[in-house]
Amino acid sequence: MSLPLTLVINLVVAAMFMTVAWVVHLRLGKASVADSFWGPGFAVIAWVTWGLSSDHALRAALVLALVTIWALRLAWHITRRSRNKPEDPRYRDLRARHPQTFWYRSLGTVFLLQAGLMWIVSLPVQLGIHSPIPQGLTWLDGMGFILWLSGFFFEAVGDAQLARFKADPANKGRILDTGLWAYTRHPNYFGETLMWWALFLIAAQVPRGLWSVIGPLVLTFLLLRVSGVRLTEATMGKSYSDLDRYKQRVSPFFPWPPQKKQKQHPR
User: Fold this and answer.
1) Residue 260, C-beta contacts closer than 8 angstroms, at least 6 positions apart
2) Whole-angstrom distance, CA of residue 149 vs CA of residue 162
3) pTM of the predicted model, to two decimals?
4) What three-state secondary structure class fits 228?
């Protein structure tokens, strides 16, 4: 099947998938389910692209495997984290602005919007799986795979460290500043960004693959300026009085050795 038609079908599939998520949200009363559907949506797009492609290169299998592993881990992590918890403040604020109409407004402003973003961000996946050439794996595939593993390490380990930290009641009101969180304030966001740039590196060598750079560019912008770093730190600022000191010591995004804690001198 041609690439343009595959892209159109994937856009429709993404919209249908997130419409199912919207129906689940109506059942549960929590728009936060959109986050649990986010990762699996990429896996669905990847598998549909695989099914629509008649000739598969080794690269296609590599991209399919990497996206599926990432999607399953992310879905498991987010679903476990949000289980038995109230609706995420992002969605709760949207609901408060339109309490009577949010149930249908959310289809477009939350779920279909995420479907569109999902389709854009997944462009390296769609192009990387769809193209049968080059057939064999190249040094770019190797570099992309190593970069993806590094990103997966930062995201998975960072999430695990934060979950373990929050599970200890003694840490209530404290900021995690050990492990990966001592080198970057957002190891999970950094890891996710790294993985999507790695997938672009793999897809860049296929015909028209360079155009898929829009995917990691959009994701990087979202994580840095919209729903990732900026929103997280704005929320943290309302709950943690020592956030400013943490921000002075620890790199905001890219991992870097932290500055030493300054000793408090008595006045």
Assistant:
1) 249
2) 20
3) 0.93
4) coil
